[in-house]
Each structure stands twice: as C-alpha cells, then as structure tokens.
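Exercise 3.2. Students should predict the tertiary structure of the chain below and write it as structure tokens, then compare their answer with the key that follows.

Predict this chain's 3D structure.
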Amino acid sequence: MAKVYVVTAPERVRGIYASWPECQAAVKGVSGARYQAVASREQADAMLRGEGRELSAGLYGFVDGNHLGGVGVVLVERRDGDDPIVVDEVGMTVVQVFLTAGLPSLSSEHAIRNALAKLRNVLAELAALHLLLRMAPEGATLTVVHDYEGVAAWMEGRWRTKDPIVAEVVEGCRSLVRARRLNVSFHHQRGHQSSWAGRDDFAQFNAKADALATEAALDR
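Answer key:
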C-alpha cells in the first residue's frame, strides 16, 4: 500500500494527503499543525478517528542494531485496559552480546569485530534478536518488532542464510526459541518513523530501541 500523509490538527487542514507536496502546502505556516507520513490510508483514517496504533494485549520485544555495533532491546507488556509498560530495556554492543552467546564463530572479541566489519548492521540486528530471546521470560508468547526485514525473513526461512556467520546466529536464535519454549511471531515496523500526529506505540518503542543502540555504540 502506498504511503500517505495525515494531518490531525488544526481542523481547517485536517485530512489525508496523497503526497508530501500536497501535505506541505496545507500545513506550511499553519500554527499547531500536527502531521506525519503513515504506511496506508487505513492507518491515516484510524488516526483521524483518534485511534492511532496501539499495542494489543501481550508481550512485545522491540529490537534494533546499527552499523556502529550498537544494539537496543525494549521489552514491553500491555495488559487489557492498561497502557503499555516497559518491562526491561537494554543497550549493549555487539561484542558484549556475542561474548556470552556461546556461538563458536563468535567466541572472541577479535572474531566478533571481524564479523561486524563484514556484516555491519546485519550482525547488530541479529545480535538484538539473540539478546531479546535470552531476556524474554521462559515459555512466553512474544511478538518481535523489528525494522530490518531479515530478522523475520531468516527466522521464518523465507531468506536463505548464505553467509556462514549469519546462518550460525540464526540457528542460535532458533535454538533459543526451542530451548526456552518461546512462542514467537514477528511484526515489521518501518524504521525511523516518528509519531507526530497521534498515538503510535510501534513507532514510539521502535525509536526507543534505536536510541538505546545508538547510545551503546557511542559509549563503547
């Protein structure tokens, strides 16, 4: 579905716009304008109704990693009738994650740094997933929210793991799912999507995971 732009305030420019030039023309110079890009007209309609995008009841793990070697994980729970709460949040480096992961090809700092130089953000994204699967409560039903498509595509077997290190990490993640009896599903969230016009829990917690990854990379 094509991206559209939604304006929720003020009332005189409120509506859905098919392109950024149209939206920009409507909000330019308008005090208090609240607007943003969304993935579909259905999402825009929901925001105009004041619904936004809220997490359903359940446990969610938001994961992110960057090419600098930072990893961010935010574990969020929402219970019926309550707002989502952050159960746990961690910012680490790829080196810190894999030194305790027990994966033969990534058993030393030297090996991890070499792999990171080759795979960059791909290794960091998978490190975030591996860390989340170790953090989640044993036996939990968990929705993994990711902005890198490969996280779900490799785990679900839709992408071939051509690189041997990627294959090893993915299999390590699958082993964690089995050993810890996790019931895991995946939700793709477009990265770096902000929420300006209304509530968007997915964008909010994805941004938090991204910030944790950046902070961890800069503090290393």
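Discussion points: DSSP finds eight helices and eight strands in the chain. The radius of gyration is 19 Å.
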